[in-house]
Design a protein that fits this description.
With 299 residues, this protein is α+β, with helices and mostly antiparallel strands. The chain has helices at 26-32, 64-69, 107-110, 116-134, 209-221, 270-275, 286-295; strands spanning 37-42, 45-49, 55-56, 74-80, 83-89, 102-106, 145-148, 153-156, 164-165, 170-178, 182-187, 199-202, 225-236, 241-250, 264-269. It is globular, with a radius of gyration of 22 Å.
Length: 299
C-alpha cells in the first residue's frame, strides 16, 4: 500500500460542511434541492446495487424507502461527489421492499469489493445508525431522545435533564511489535485457521495511547515494548471503533507468554510471512497495512 494513501474507510471522500448542521431549516433546504441523494440504512445493513461490482443504491426524495424513514430518521451526512447526501434510517419493522436490483447488505462482508469513497461513506453512515439505535433513551434519566443538529446530536426530551448525546467512538490501539528481524503476531480462537494479526486492544480510562500499547502487548503476550511510534489511524465501524496504529520495539529478552483473549502469539520472520504459511488479516484493515509496511523493511 502507498503510505501516502489513507487507510480503508478513511480519506477526504466527503465534504461534511458541519456548519450546515446548525441551520434550523436544513431539512427544508435538503428537500428543496432536486439533487439531494439518500443512503438507506436498515439496522446495520445498507441498500446497495448488487452489481457486480456492488455500489451504493442512492435514492431520491420520492422513493418509498426514503418516505419510510420519516423526518426523525434523516441525518445530514454532507456533500458526496457534489451532491447533498442524507442518511435515511428506516424505522424498526419497516416493510417496504427494496427496488429491483438492490438489497440490504452488511458492509463488512462487501467492503473489499466496494470503491474506497463509497466504503468510507457507508462506514460513516453505519456508525451513526448504530449510535442512534443504541441511544433512543437518555442514559441519565431514561427519557426518550430526539435528534437535533441535523441528526448529529440526540437530545433528552426531559427538560429537567436536557442531556445532549454526541456520536461516540471507542478508541483502540493496534501495534506492530518487532525485534528488528521478526514481527510479533497473535490469533484469537474464533479466527480462521492460520490467521494471525497485530496486537490490539481498547484504551482504558486514565491512560494515554502509548500507555495502552505497552499494557496491551504485555497483557496479551508478556512482551515488554519500547520506542512506541504512531503510524496512522482507521475508522472501524464494527460497531464504533477508531483503530489507532503504532509501531514498537520489543525489549531485549522479552519472552512470549500468551494470556488474555489470544489463543496463540509468536514471532514471524519476513520469509515466513511471505511464504504464505500465515493467513494475513484482510487487506482493508490497518493491521495489514502495518504488516505490509514492515515486510517492506520499516521497523
Amino acid at each position: 500500500m502507498d503510505q501516502d494513501l489513507p487507510n480503508y474507510f478513511a480519506g477526504p471522500y466527503l465534504e461534511r460542511r458541519a456548519e450546515a448542521r446548525e441551520d434550523p431549516e436544513w431539512l427544508a433546504a435538503a428537500r428543496a434541492d432536486p439533487d439531494t441523494i439518500y443512503l438507506i440504512g436498515r439496522g446495520t445493513a445498507q441498500l446497495l446495487h448488487t452489481g457486480p461490482p456492488p455500489r451504493i443504491a442512492f435514492l431520491g426524495h420520492d422513493a418509498p424507502l426514503v418516505r419510510g424513514a420519516g423526518d426523525d430518521g434523516l441525518v445530514l451526512l454532507g456533500w458526496f461527489r457534489g451532491a447533498r447526501c442524507l442518511l435515511a434510517d428506516l424505522r424498526a419493522g419497516h416493510a417496504a421492499d427494496p427496488p429491483a436490483g438492490t438489497s440490504f447488505e452488511e458492509l463488512r462482508s462487501l467492503a473489499p469489493l466496494l470503491g474506497t469513497e463509497e466504503s468510507g461513506l457507508l462506514a460513516y453512515a453505519r456508525a451513526l445508525s448504530i449510535w442512534r439505535a443504541r441511544h433512543r433513551h437518555c442514559g441519565v434519566c431514561g427519557a426518550p431522545t430526539i435528534a437535533t443538529r441535523a441528526g448529529h446530536i440526540l437530545s433528552c426530551t426531559n427538560t429537567a435533564c436536557a442531556q445532549e448525546l454526541f456520536p461516540r467512538l471507542d478508541p483502540a490501539i493496534i501495534v506492530l511489535v518487532s525485534d528488528g528481524e521478526r514481527a510479533l503476531l497473535g490469533r484469537q480462537p474464533s479466527w480462521p485457521p492460520r490467521r494471525y494479526s497485530t496486537i490490539a486492544g481498547f484504551v482504558e480510562p486514565g491512560e494515554s495511547l502509548e500507555d495502552a500499547v505497552i499494557r496491551e502487548v504485555a497483557e496479551e503476550t508478556g512482551v515488554a515494548v519500547t520506542g512506541v511510534r504512531y503510524d496512522s489511524s482507521q475508522p472501524w465501524p464494527f460497531p464504533s471503533s477508531l483503530m489507532i496504529g503504532f509501531r514498537a520495539r520489543a525489549a531485549p529478552g522479552s519472552g512470549v507468554r500468551v494470556s488474555g483473549e489470544l489463543e496463540d502469539a509468536r514471532w514471524f520472520t519476513r520469509a515466513q510471512l511471505n511464504s504464505g504459511e500465515v493467513l494475513a488479516p484482510p487487506a482493508q484493515s490497518i493491521s495489514w497495512r502495518l504488516i505490509e509496511t514492515w515486510l517492506k523493511g520499516a521497523g
